[in-house]
Specification:
Elements: E1 4-11, H1 25-28, E2 34-38, H2 46-58, E3 62-66, H3 84-104, E4 109-112, H4 116-124, H5 126-139, E5 144-147, H6 152-160, E6 164-169, H7 191-204, E7 206-208, E8 214-216, E9 221-225, H8 231-244, E10 248-249, H9 252-267
Parallel strand pairs: 1-2, 1-9, 1-10, 2-3, 3-4, 4-5, 5-6, 6-9
Antiparallel strand pairs: 7-8
């Protein structure tokens, strides 16, 4: 059973006057511990990036870059073909932009979490993941990479020594492989059912797949999406359920550093 867990959320996912989802970032920010901030290619713009970093910093929430494919029309959930160099350079460009806004507000960029179709492509593409991790080792060797356990991204990071945060997806379904079932429209899920799913993952280490199979799940952070309908109710029910089980919500850096210290003590 977990003693503490991080909650991360994709945020700043708008563009100019365009908005998606029915929750406001200002409402969600106080209920999470890590924010994945859109960096302009699938959503986000300079003013919104600046504002989202500002409110994350004000609430002590970890700031993360959330780069995606250059796909505003498709919200980054369509694969965009390109060479590995082109794709990684797009990612580097976006991370660099968010770093400057984080610098402006006096906070570090805690992590990088690719978005949507780019996240899934990296998860399956060993060569692309290795190039991504090589960039991280050069530019940000202490920055967390958010990924699914067992994915190509996870394995490349572990082999290279890049710190990782493995995710559990609260508002997405799982297949029997342990990967999320990619969807462009999650509808309006039941927040109580999601809370029960999260608690089972935290207490039993299991999740039920779309085929009705119970599979083990390993994770450090719970993810939900601000564009999911009912996102505010989802995170409220999750937090209430976690508190009822005696599970703390804490920044991922605090959790992982505490776990590392405990393992070191146990081995001494």
């Amino acid at each position: 059973m977990k003693e503490a867990v991080d909650i991360n959320c994709d945020m700043g996912e708008a563009f100019g006057r365009w908005r998606i989802g029915d929750a406001h970032d200002e409402e969600l920010i106080s209920l999470i511990s890590s924010a994945n901030i859109a960096t302009g290619f699938h959503a986000g713009d300079p003013n919104l990036m600046d504002e989202t970093v500002r409110i994350a910093a004000a609430h002590g929430v970890g700031v993360g870059a959330h780069p995606g494919y250059n796909d505003l029309q498709g919200f980054g959930r369509r694969k965009i073909n390109g060479t590995s160099r082109e794709i990684i350079n797009d990612l580097i460009y976006q991370v660099g932009a968010l770093r400057e806004f984080a610098r402006r507000h006096g906070v570090p960029v805690q992590h990088v979490k690719p978005h949507g179709a780019l996240y899934m492509e990296l998860a399956a593409n060993t060569d692309l993941s290795q190039i991504f991790i090589q960039y991280m080792r050069t530019a940000a060797p202490n920055m967390f990479v958010f990924c699914m356990d067992g994915s190509a991204t996870c394995l490349a990071a572990q082999e290279a020594g890049q710190p990782i945060v493995r995710e559990f997806y609260a508002d997405r379904d799982y297949g029997d492989t342990g990967w999320i079932v990619f969807t462009r429209d999650a509808g309006r899920p039941d927040p109580k059912a999601i809370a029960r799913k999260v608690i089972r993952a935290c207490t039993e280490g299991l999740v039920r797949t779309v085929n009705g199979t119970d599979i083990p799940i390993v994770f450090d952070s719970i993810c939900f999406h601000s564009d999911t309908l009912g996102a505010l109710d989802i995170v409220r029910h999750m937090r209430e359920a976690l508190v009822a089980e005696g599970i703390k919500v804490a920044p991922v850096s605090q959790i992982l550093n505490s776990d590392a210290a405990r393992r070191s003590h146990e081995q001494a």
